[in-house]
């Protein structure tokens, strides 16, 4: 689908099937003429208006970046590989454990028949395959842990969220000043003598005079 509009009437949208082409613009021109005939177009177009003068209306660009898309794709691939290895390990585990139990007869003094040895040799192939797939599975599982986190973030819409911006005031004076509680001012004014003190001093002076 492709959409066209007019510079004179941007509110008018003409939708045509297919991609932008001369044929598509001619179809849009036919729709425009039909609107004009029905009196639904208020703008008077100048003589000689051609389909080439249509303005294509393009869809807004997707906000998902290619890096985010690649991260999801890689995460799914890692999880798919983990699933494949897990199935393979499960298929080989039972038989491999049986063969592993037979390995101990090689370390005992009990006699072993040639048939048992040949059977054990054939089983070594299964044991080898299981051990290799199991190591790959353990390695893939450790890698898939991060893939699971990436996938969860994409499903919850929080993939590659920008870190919160820390805003710091550009002017140091704009920082709030701590309030310092000053001690109460000390009253340095000499304390006035009370009436009792005055009377005591007077009595002492009178006593000295009598002597």
Automatic annotation (TrEMBL):
Region (Disordered): 160-211
Coiled coil: 75-102
Keyword annotations: Coiled coil
Compositional bias annotation for Basic and acidic residues: 201-211
Lineage: superkingdom: Bacteria
Name of the molecule in the record: Uncharacterized protein
Species for this entry: Tumidithrix elongata BACA0141
Lineage: Bacteria, Bacillati, Cyanobacteriota, Cyanophyceae, Pseudanabaenales
């Amino acid at each position: 689908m492709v959409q066209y509009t007019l510079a004179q009437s941007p509110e008018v949208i003409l939708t045509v099937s297919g991609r932008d082409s001369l044929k598509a613009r001619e179809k849009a021109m036919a729709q425009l003429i039909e609107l004009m005939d029905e009196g639904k177009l208020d703008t008077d177009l100048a003589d000689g208006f051609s389909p080439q003068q249509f303005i294509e209306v393009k869809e807004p660009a997707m906000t998902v970046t290619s890096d985010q898309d690649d991260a999801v794709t890689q995460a799914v691939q890692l999880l798919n590989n983990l699933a494949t290895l897990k199935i393979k390990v499960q298929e080989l585990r039972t038989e491999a454990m049986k063969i592993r139990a037979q390995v101990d007869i090689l370390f005992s003094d009990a006699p072993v028949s040639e048939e048992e040895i040949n059977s054990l040799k054939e089983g070594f192939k299964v044991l080898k395959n299981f051990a290799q797939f199991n190591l790959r599975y353990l390695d893939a599982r450790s890698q898939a842990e991060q893939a699971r986190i990436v996938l969860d973030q994409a499903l919850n819409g929080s993939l590659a969220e920008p870190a919160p911006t820390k805003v710091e005031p550009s002017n140091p004076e704009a920082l709030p000043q701590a309030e310092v509680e000053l001690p109460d001012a000390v009253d340095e004014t000499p304390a006035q003598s009370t009436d009792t003190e005055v009377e005591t001093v007077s009595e002492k002076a009178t006593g000295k005079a009598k002597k």
